[in-house]
Design goal:
By secondary structure, the chain is of the alpha/beta class. It has two domains: 6-226, Rossmann fold (3-Layer(aba) Sandwich), CATH 3.40.50.300; 231-289, Alpha-Beta Plaits (2-Layer Sandwich), CATH 3.30.70. Helices cover 33% and strands 28% of the residues. The chain is built from eleven helices and 14 strands. It has helices spanning 46-54, 75-79, 97-107, 115-125, 141-151, 171-186, 198-204, 222-229, 239-244, 270-278, 292-300; strands at residues 6-17, 20-31, 35-39, 61-66, 69-71, 82-85, 159-163, 190-195, 207-212, 215-220, 233-238, 254-259, 262-267, 286-289. The strands form three sheets. A six-stranded mixed sheet has the order 6-7-8-3-9-10, with helices on both faces. A four-stranded antiparallel sheet has the order 2-1-4-5. The structure holds adenosine-5'-diphosphate and magnesium ion (MG). Adenosine-5'-diphosphate binds at residues 17, 22, 40, 42-48.
Amino acid sequence: MDDNAAALLVTDLRKTYGGRTVVDGLSLRVARGTCVGLLGPNGAGKTTTLRLLLGHTRPDAGRIEVLGFSVPEAASQARARLGVVGQSDNLDPDFNVEENLYHYARYYGLDPRALRERFTDLLTFAGLEDRRDAPLRELSGGMRRRLALIRALVHDPVMLFLDEPTTGLDPQARFHLWQRFRQLRREGRTLLLTTHYMEEAERLCDRLVVLDHGRVVAEGSPQELVRRHVEPFVLELPAEAGRDLGLGEERHELRTLHLEETVFVYARARENLESLLSRCPETPARLRPSNLEDVFFALTGHALRD
Ligand SMILES: Nc1ncnc2c1ncn2[C@@H]1O[C@H](COP(=O)(O)OP(=O)(O)O)[C@@H](O)[C@H]1O
Ligand SMILES: [Mg+2]
């Protein structure tokens, strides 16, 4: 391996389906022990990227090295050291909680006699220690996701691929999972996750690669991205109120963007937005610090969740 500190090295990866470019020149480096996020809307190419990294799909061009193994050539060696939580959990509804772990462990050729203790540790980690014999239909969405996570940990992988790990969960279930991801990172594991939730990306990831239409549109820590690409403050107003305030006109201290029925007004100084706000006291408006959603919007002209 030419870069020992990297768990993952990708250079100029390309994938086309039926003439449509789905991954368009993606380069990526994930340092060991870090959490890196692929942030992008539906259809951005996140799952396809993970499939390429796992060797499930062959790239049209580009180089992939996962944990020192070339993919797809040595994908099975890489996969033996990786844990994967897919976008749909693929748990087996005919088995109970422990049986789901057991069948997965057998797939990795682990000694069944050594597993009971390991399962106890994993179930405790997931807060499922009381559900060992529960049928899957009795689990909540959050519990299923936590089971899918520990199933991906049975062979003690050094790196995890998590594809939209909290999509569709309520905020509390999402928060529980975030705590687990943080713990796995503290244990020194490397995490690559995909998400279209900017809050998830902001809270969990050391670095982000922002994707749109299979292309990297920006890259850096969440704070760096916000600093580099947008003004620090934004005022959200109904489009109509924006028109009344004459926001369509040139005002160099403000930058405005329209998205459907909302106008976003960006400024370097909070005071500029406060004075604007004071001119329309009756208007439902929101003055807040800029975030990754604003970065995405500034770079692509559309929202992360469309
Ligand atoms: N096997 C496939 N055949 C044809 N098109 C595909 C296939 N897999 C994905 N795509 C297309 O590639 C694009 C990116 O998909 P995907 O990687 O699943 O995006 P994301 O995970 O970011 O939502 C989508 O437009 C999708 O329809
Ligand atoms: Mg996907």
